[in-house]
Specification:
This protein is an all-alpha fold. The chain has one domain. Helices cover about 95% and strands about 0% of the residues. The chain is built from 3 helices and no strands. It is rod-shaped.
């Protein structure tokens, strides 16, 4: 067993040479590509972080723009609602005014029609009273003038009345 634990200079020399050859080969063949891929990965991560920061800033700008658009839309909505309310009030007031004018016109026309009907009824009543009066007077006169002496006396009184006028 001593052979395995004993150190010989030849073995140390050849182990060192083998180690240096392997280290040289690893440096030329493996460390370069590994370091290159690590640098590329680091650069990719850095680019991704920069892109994420740029996207975050862009999102912040877009959010500010969206908030501005939202404010403008709310202002426009409020303006449109105010205009609609003013238009509604105007239409309601105009309708009230027209209705008031129309009711006044209808009342005036109805009042005038009532007055015309009243006058026509009074005129008709007067005409009927006059006709009835003439009919009654005619009947009374016929009864009174049925005998000739009464007729003669009436004629003389009418002639006297005409002469005095």
């Amino acid at each position: 067993m001593d052979g395995l634990l004993s150190v010989s200079y030849g073995t140390v020399f050849w182990a060192t040479v083998a180690f240096l050859v392997v280290a040289f080969l690893l440096k030329k063949m493996a460390w370069g590509p590994i370091l290159k891929s690590l640098d590329e990965r680091s650069q990719g991560i850095e680019n991704a972080l920069n892109e994420a920061e740029r996207a975050r800033q862009e999102m912040s700008k877009l959010q500010a723009g969206n908030e501005q658009l939202l404010r403008e839309a709310r202002d426009e909505r409020d303006r449109i609602l105010a205009e609609a309310k003013a238009l509604k009030d105007s239409i309601v007031n105009e309708a009230r005014t027209k209705a008031s004018e129309e009711s006044t016109r209808i009342i005036t026309a109805a009042s005038q029609e009532i007055d015309n009907q009243k006058k026509a009824a009074i005129t008709e009543l007067k005409n009927q009273v006059a006709t009835l009066s003439v009919d009654i007077a005619e009947k009374l006169t016929r009864e009174k003038l049925s005998d000739s002496e009464k007729q003669k006396a009436l004629n003389e009184s009418l002639i006297a009345e005409i002469r005095s006028n």
